[in-house]
Amino acid sequence: MTSKEMLRHLVIQQKIQIEKSGDFVKRSIFSQVLAALDDNRVIILAGIRRCGKSTLLKQIMQTRKDYCYVNFEDERLLSFRAEDFSILDEVLIEVYGPACTYFFDEIQNVEKFETFVRRLQDSGRKVVLTGSNASLLSREFGTRLTGRYKLFEVYPFSFMEFLRFQKTKLSKETLYIPEEKVNLIRLFGRYAECGGMPEYLRNNDSDYIQTLYDNILYRDIIARYSLRRQRLVRELVGILASTITLPFTYNSLKKSLGLMNAITVKEYISYLSGAYLFFELLRFDYSVKKQLNSPRKIYIIDTAFSAISGFSLSPDKGRILENIVFIELMRRGGEIFYYAGDRECDFILKDKKKITGAIQVCYEFTKENQDRETGGLLKAMAEFKLTQGMILTYDQEDTLKSDGKTIIIKPVWKWLLEGVP
After folding, report:
1. Is residue 19 classed as helix, strand or coil in its secondary structure?
2. Own/partner pairs for 243-246, CB < 8 Å, 24+ apart?
3. Residues 74, 76, 81, 82: is their CA dihedral positive or negative?
4. Of the candidates 288, 271, 373, which has an alpha carbon nearest to the alpha carbon of residue 322?
5. Which residues does residue 351 pair with via DSSP β-bridges, in sequence order?
6. Of 123, 279, 314, 397, which is least packed with CB atoms within 10 Å of its CB?
7. pLDDT at 52 exceeding the cut of 90
């Protein structure tokens, strides 16, 4: 059992740390989370380690008066157990006073944490949690708090948030001023290279990313799931990183890794996805069975991880652009697929039962690749009866007409800034 004195000392220290003022970048998701504080559901902020969840938590806490906070990532809480929550609650009341809102960072480190959260919720308390393991959080809350929680997924900085971090003044007018446009393109080039991990952008230290990667791999995957074949996990990550945006099958990866069956590959990729390091994209098909059996595509959470030794995000800049577009689509929500018939379209967007959009990504749209890039897009548009599609490039803008259909060609950086006031 964790001692009350140690918990009191820890809570006081964390209180001092969390109340320090800081220069925060306003996250686009902030207002949505704030609005959700008004109902009685548990709020979960989930995302990869160090993507800014704790900072977002601080921003939310600044809007509340009666709150308390604990970060379970603290190594002094390694022996903390579910039965210690009662003592912790006493300490929190002593340090903070009676609290209406409980903020818990990385709570998935405590087994059976959901029982205490349920008890707090039943007593009328508001609970806001962060976690870096999607599958663990959803499994625990799926059994204990079905329908009683709201999940927000937090990603590394978007391009708009990156510009806020760079203190770049932005308005709709600046997108069309020549000198401002040149600066935005330059900044987008840096964003494409460095990604949006907040701390990495502050220190530009590749050792930081290496350490973060090791923590994700060992703490969130190898240790959490008691995996003995550490070398196999690293080899799989290396293969996935080098095949970003490309189709793959579990069987093809099985052969590359020299395994006897594909079940291990499937499990390991689910662990990597649960830790928000990689994401799988399914091929669209009206048959769920065919969809699940078709090749998938893989994407990485942030281009910052290309700095890791052994990672290779290909010199193909078009694939880097496609990865950026995919992560932005994830931020915006909705279902995403890729389309493949005799031609391929990078992204198909689905809202409920309806296909609402089709997007193709290429670094540069030229006469040489025009047939390939428009072919898959037009095929998808025809199949789903879409009158408009989009091709996103590095820095080209145009409109094409074909058989009554419209193709908008737009720079990725400008698409990323849609919604600028």
Report:
1. coil
2. 243/298, 244/298, 244/299, 244/300, 244/313, 244/314, 244/319, 244/323, 245/297, 245/298, 245/299, 245/319, 245/322, 245/323, 245/326, 245/346, 246/297, 246/298, 246/319
3. negative
4. 373
5. 354
6. 123
7. yes
